[in-house]
Amino acid sequence: MAEIEAVEVTRSYRMDGVSVDALRGVSLTIEEGDYAAIIGPSGSGKSTLMHLLGCLDRPTTGTLLVGGRDVGTLDDSELAELRNQTIGFVFQSFQLLARTTALDNVALPLVYRGVRRAERRKRAAEALDAVNLGHRIGHKPTQMSGGEQQRVAIARALVGEPSVLLADEPTGNLDTVNGDEVMGILERLNKERGVAVVLVTHEADIAARARRIIRVRDGLIEAVAEAPEPS
Amino acid sequence: MRITESFRVAFDALRANRLRSLLTMLGVVIGVAAVVVLVAIGGGAKQLVTSEVEGLGSNIVFVVPGKFQIGTTPAVSRLQLSDADYLNRVLGRPDAVAVDLTSAEDLRAGTNTYYASVQGTTANVVDVFDRPLAEGRYVSKADIATARRVIVLGPDAAAALFPDTDPIGRQVSMSGVEFRVIGLFQAKGGAFGVSPDTEVHIPVTAAQRLFGMDNISGFAVKADTPGDVDAVGAKLVDALKQKYQGDEFTAVSQTEILGTIGKILSMLTLVLAAIAGISLLVGGVGVSNIMLVSVRERTKEIGLRKALGARQRDVLSQFLLEAVMLTSIGGVIGIGLGIGASAILSAFTPLPAVLAWWSIVLAFGVSVAVGVFFGVMPARRAGRLDPVVALRTE
Fold first, then answer.
1. Which residue, among B371, B293, B294, has the nearest Cα to B331 in the 3D structure?
2. Where is the MacB-like periplasmic core domain (chain B) (predicted)?
3. ipTM given for this complex
4. Which residues in chain B touch residue A160, judged by CB atoms under 8 angstroms apart?
5. Residue range of the domain that includes A212
6. For position A122, which CATH number holds?
């Protein structure tokens, strides 16, 4: 079963009374263990697409299935639950709670799943280990470098064992070395754990690392390029 | 989300903005403390006045001319001193009826002066009102028969007129007429400027001459038991109505006075509590305001929490709990402050303060309610934030 399946999905907004068609009929499938990059210029609709894939939003028309559930028919609470269960977010600006330790930041998704504190901490520690930050669980984001912060964010995305990691410009705020490391971790998780990774980026060399490149323009998918299987 | 987790998150948020939380709390603290203290003062006043009136003796019934109500001016009296004997006969008890004729006069002894309520009385007043003497003797029947110019002083009057000497045997003059001091009352204490300690008593016959009146103000009788008070009162009123056809008389018992005073003071207490309640309300508006600011400041955090799976009600309860914690912590501090202030008030000022447990419970309940009431709007706003919009906010 595909993790995410979009069929002729559109999304329009009303801004100051004017209707804006951000997506005008997009169909795509994210398979289990997929590694895809969504690229496109700003205003192309790639952010809107990412919000839809991440169940932060519902399509105006068309069908969007995430984890087998029709996003368009779910209410806010069900969407929240679906996000919590199936999607892990990695944001460009990390989005960590500043006054909270790495461990508690990572454990946050489990809070909304009703997991007990001791169990949460154990699993958060494991997730931090997986991104090589096992030694910094008690540190706060302000005491960490950008690369470390993004690794904490990846651990947070990972802790709930989602089937899809959605990474929105994950290297956008990082230098090349840290960016490489973050990408390496995402790829390792993709390979070792079989979690599907969807990158949203405008950096061609980052996108080029994915197995598939989905090019979005003017609210439509312009092209899908399959990378040759590495031998 | 588990409730313990919600508490932790709310508490952390309050701690993160310590100064702001404290200042916001202050409104509630002041409001709650004001409620507790003002209700304590009101209650204390009531207790004091009640014990004062009770001190008169619970068996006493007053008979006065006219339709008497607290707050109205007394009617002109046609009652005569001889009516006391008539009422004694009606009751079948000699010396049951005490007589009163009161006027305010300037008293003078040497260079000292004192303005007092001078009561013309009969010899049985000390028994009816239970006024033991500290020194000397009270007005006697012989004093009344001969309108002898003798005077019994309350401790306040004695202290003002004779600060350094023993007053017994000394002269006090009123309107140029000399009275000899024959006795001193024991101190009884009082409040609000009404105290039996300020009274001075002279024979009623001497008072009639001094005031230039031939009538008297009213009678007081001590019934055998509190249960007899109403019957005795009715008997006296009937007897007087028979004698003075067409005139009205009223019997007033201590219970009635207590009831009226109690009503007035309960009203006063309520008004005080309501005024304090307004400040609590203002404190609540402050909480609402700060919560709105907090929601705006943390829009991004809300967006993130929602992206990670927080439902609308998770976010709502987080902010609501924050507001309620703010006001209930403020409430507890305010109660502590109120109790402390009440204790200090009763220790160092003549104002009595009696803590009312209901005011403490009410104040805490209201502060929690204020948190819910004023927190719900900002919390709903937080809960309804669209995660896409919230995450985009800078």
1. B371
2. 21-237
3. 0.94
4. 309
5. 32-55+86-226
6. 3.40.50.300
